[in-house]
């Protein structure tokens, strides 16, 4: 919940805009500002104060505890010009909130956290528990001093300007699930690589399960902060001791059907669980079900009262999973790049793409991002490279213009990818949509895109699809319409459409949509000169109901335009 506090009429007006824009996310604290701030500080995850920073500093100072748990506080000035991230920039989310508030109110976000202002990911914002000297290592990164990466686990870290381990750097970022003390000048990051398989008799106390898991990890020299999950058999999904132990460890309880566990090869099967739940192994099999290496074979809890053990535990280390984001950059204009695409570009430590698309977003990349760019025609190789890098455990962004799934990199990449990496798709504004918005509303009824490139598709297939679209009276957007070496395809396709549509059918020709030198023309099937079309262009041909209205191309949502009264009404 975001607490909103204001003292003046202007502040209250801005406050109400936030409250209206974010229904259910905010709570207004009325009354004297001091009491309101204190109440909101105690009850909310975040505060937006429409008050001077000085006033807020005085009010929150006695309330501040620790940056890991304090709420994030944003101040907005009386004129609504600035949204200042005051405290809790990272963990409290104030930096992100300042940006959001700024966007909504038209205020400039003011973010002073050093790592954010130079575009570095903060070591405490990586989504991994961090131990050790975070402040000193962050400072070294900011000062451009060499910081080494010592990674025992492959993990898709965001970009950080780190040097190899043996380069004698005074500072280190260490990525390990082993129980090591951080040295001076060292930050230890805990990747969630460990899975503890657990078995429990009915009524096993949570204390016993928890104690067993914690002892097992510690005795094996492993950090509980790297624990990703407890795993068990489906029949034990509701076993209170397991549920509570998982909750107290802060990890999910993952369950597997007994048949699945029975099929997992384990070193220590036994008859007891076979009789009880239908698999010869619960702890070892559940730990191993997601793959990985068995670090600690099954062991039982030790009970002080000498009674039989009620819990078993085994520990597996999973291989790190890389992350492949397939990111659409939109048609060209920076403000048509989605915030989500931008976040993924900042999140990736490896960027793979066509050189001209990399140029489009190079300034957004964080220091330390490895850029693998290649020229036109190397699609398959780019796809393979992106997948191979993700498989090595990296966070990879594979970029494409428009939407990366439309005549672009998503399909060759996913054809290469197996289940061993995570894939995230970020949609983009396609050329057809960008062109449609410039032309008017040409896509108001059923429509298709057809690429006229016969590089990967035989012309007969393309022509058959154009014919089908013509017969079905679909609005058609032609991609890759014409290049120097491919000049007869567009006239041919237009001829097919002309067989079913009037010569006066509106045709939109949009070149470089949303780019600085963009042009938009509205013509007709009969008047279009194919020579004015090139590879930077999309051509949208209307259906039999599409009309030019006030210089705009409009395809009605129904076919009522053909109705006489509607014709007259126009
Ligand atoms: N993935 C892209 C399409 C790539 S195919 C998308 O979703 O839009 C390349 C073709 O897209 C070009 O030949 C051209 O026909 C079209 N195109 C891409 N960007 C364009 C733009 N800004 N303006 C007009 N056409 C564009």
From TrEMBL:
<dbReference type="Pfam" id="PF00590">
    <property type="entry name" value="TP_methylase"/>
</dbReference>
<dbReference type="Pfam" id="PF01890">
    <property type="entry name" value="CbiG_C"/>
</dbReference>
<dbReference type="InterPro" id="IPR038029">
    <property type="entry name" value="GbiG_N_sf"/>
</dbReference>
<dbReference type="InterPro" id="IPR000878">
    <property type="entry name" value="4pyrrol_Mease"/>
</dbReference>
<keyword id="KW-0808">Transferase</keyword>
<protein>
    <submittedName>
        <fullName>Precorrin-3B C(17)-methyltransferase</fullName>
        <ecNumber>2.1.1.131</ecNumber>
    </submittedName>
</protein>
<feature type="domain" description="Cobalamin synthesis G N-terminal">
    <location>
        <begin position="36"/>
        <end position="116"/>
    </location>
</feature>
<dbReference type="InterPro" id="IPR002750">
    <property type="entry name" value="CobE/GbiG_C"/>
</dbReference>
<dbReference type="InterPro" id="IPR006363">
    <property type="entry name" value="Cbl_synth_CobJ/CibH_dom"/>
</dbReference>
<keyword id="KW-0949">S-adenosyl-L-methionine</keyword>
<dbReference type="Pfam" id="PF11760">
    <property type="entry name" value="CbiG_N"/>
</dbReference>
<keyword id="KW-0489">Methyltransferase</keyword>
<dbReference type="InterPro" id="IPR051810">
    <property type="entry name" value="Precorrin_MeTrfase"/>
</dbReference>
<dbReference type="InterPro" id="IPR036518">
    <property type="entry name" value="CobE/GbiG_C_sf"/>
</dbReference>
<dbReference type="InterPro" id="IPR014777">
    <property type="entry name" value="4pyrrole_Mease_sub1"/>
</dbReference>
<comment type="pathway">
    <text>Cofactor biosynthesis; adenosylcobalamin biosynthesis.</text>
</comment>
<dbReference type="InterPro" id="IPR035996">
    <property type="entry name" value="4pyrrol_Methylase_sf"/>
</dbReference>
<dbReference type="InterPro" id="IPR021744">
    <property type="entry name" value="CbiG_N"/>
</dbReference>
<dbReference type="GO" id="GO:0032259">
    <property type="term" value="P:methylation"/>
</dbReference>
<feature type="domain" description="CobE/GbiG C-terminal">
    <location>
        <begin position="194"/>
        <end position="315"/>
    </location>
</feature>
<dbReference type="GO" id="GO:0030789">
    <property type="term" value="F:precorrin-3B C17-methyltransferase activity"/>
</dbReference>
<feature type="domain" description="Tetrapyrrole methylase">
    <location>
        <begin position="323"/>
        <end position="528"/>
    </location>
</feature>
<keyword id="KW-0169">Cobalamin biosynthesis</keyword>
<dbReference type="InterPro" id="IPR014776">
    <property type="entry name" value="4pyrrole_Mease_sub2"/>
</dbReference>
């Amino acid at each position: 919940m975001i607490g909103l506090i204001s003292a003046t009429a202007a502040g209250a007006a801005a406050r109400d805009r936030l409250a209206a824009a974010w229904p259910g996310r905010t709570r207004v604290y009325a009354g004297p500002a001091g009491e309101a701030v204190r109440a909101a500080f105690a009850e909310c995850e975040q505060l937006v104060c429409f008050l001077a920073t000085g006033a807020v500093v005085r009010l929150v100072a006695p309330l501040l505890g620790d940056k890991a748990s304090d709420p994030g506080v944003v101040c907005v000035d009386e004129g609504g010009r600035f949204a200042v991230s005051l405290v809790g920039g990272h963990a409290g989310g104030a930096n992100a909130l300042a940006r959001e508030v700024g966007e909504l109110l038209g205020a400039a976000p003011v973010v002073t956290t050093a790592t954010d202002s130079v575009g570095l990911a903060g070591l405490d914002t990586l989504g991994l528990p961090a131990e050790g000297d975070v402040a000193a290592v962050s400072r070294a990164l900011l000062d451009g001093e060499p910081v080494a990466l010592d990674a025992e686990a492959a993990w898709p870290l965001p970009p950080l300007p780190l040097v190899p381990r043996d380069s004698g750097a005074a500072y280190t970022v260490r990525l390990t699930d082993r129980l090591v003390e951080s040295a001076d000048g060292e930050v230890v990051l805990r990747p969630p690589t460990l899975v503890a398989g657990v078995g429990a008799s009915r009524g096993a106390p949570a204390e016993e399960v928890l104690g067993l898991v914690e002892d097992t990890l510690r005795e094996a020299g492993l950090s509980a902060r790297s624990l990703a999950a407890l795993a068990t058999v489906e029949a034990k999904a509701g076993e209170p001791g397991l549920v509570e132990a998982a909750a107290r460890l802060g990890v999910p309880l993952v369950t597997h059907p007994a048949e699945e566990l029975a099929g997992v090869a384990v070193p220590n099967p036994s008859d007891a669980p076979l009789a009880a739940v239908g698999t010869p192994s619960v702890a070892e099999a559940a730990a191993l079900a997601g793959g990985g290496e068995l670090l600690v074979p099954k062991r039982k809890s030790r009970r002080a009262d000498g009674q039989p053990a009620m819990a078993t535990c085994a520990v597996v280390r999973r291989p790190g999973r890389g992350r492949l984001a397939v990111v659409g950059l939109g048609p060209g204009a920076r403000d048509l790049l989605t915030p989500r695409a931008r976040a993924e570009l900042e999140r990736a430590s490896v960027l793979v793409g066509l050189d001209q698309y990399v140029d489009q977003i190079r300034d957004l990349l964080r220091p330390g991002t490895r850029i693998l760019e290649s020229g036109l025609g190397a699609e398959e190789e780019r796809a393979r490279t992106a997948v191979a890098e993700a498989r090595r455990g990296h966070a990879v962004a594979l970029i494409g213009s428009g939407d990366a799934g439309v005549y672009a990199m998503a399909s060759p990449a996913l054809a290469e990818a197996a289940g061993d990496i995570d894939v995230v798709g970020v949609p983009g504004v396609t050329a057809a949509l960008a062109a449609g918005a410039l032309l008017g509303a040409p896509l108001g009824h059923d429509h298709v895109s057809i690429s006229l490139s016969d590089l990967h598709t035989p012309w007969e297939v393309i022509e058959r699809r154009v014919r089908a679209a013509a017969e079905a009276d679909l609005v058609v957007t032609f991609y890759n319409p014409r290049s120097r070496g491919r000049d007869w395809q567009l006239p041919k396709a237009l001829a097919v459409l002309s067989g079913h549509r009037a010569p006066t059918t509106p045709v939109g020709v949009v070149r470089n949509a949303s780019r600085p030198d963009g042009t938009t023309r509205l013509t007709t099937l009969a008047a279009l000169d194919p020579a004015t079309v090139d590879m930077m262009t999309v051509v949208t041909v209307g259906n039999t109901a599409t009309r030019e209205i006030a210089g705009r191309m409009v395809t009605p949502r129904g076919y009522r335009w053909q109705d006489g009264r509607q014709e007259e009404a126009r």
